[in-house]
Amino acid sequence: xxxxxxxxxxxxxxxxxxxxxxxxxxxxxxxxxxxxxxxxxxxxxxxxxxxxxxxxxxxxxxxxxxxxxxxxxxxxxxxxxxxxxxxxx
Length: 89
What we know:
Layout: H1 7-18, H2 24-37, H3 43-53, H4 57-64, H5 77-88
Helix pairs in contact: 1-3, 2-5
């Protein structure tokens, strides 16, 4: 039986795989952010990122480029803080 890495490590690897997007711009922006900040993301950051990654590519890009503000369920302080960090990366 294979040994499992810590659940945080497994979750981060899954998240990086899920972050691969159809739009190159999203891949670049998210990849850069994960390279710089990925190891520092806590459980709430990971949930906020999961919520962002559930968006269609164009909607996600609009948020990453600050063309739009989060709305509805994404209009949350944690999502806004994560977006600010992603934009700065």
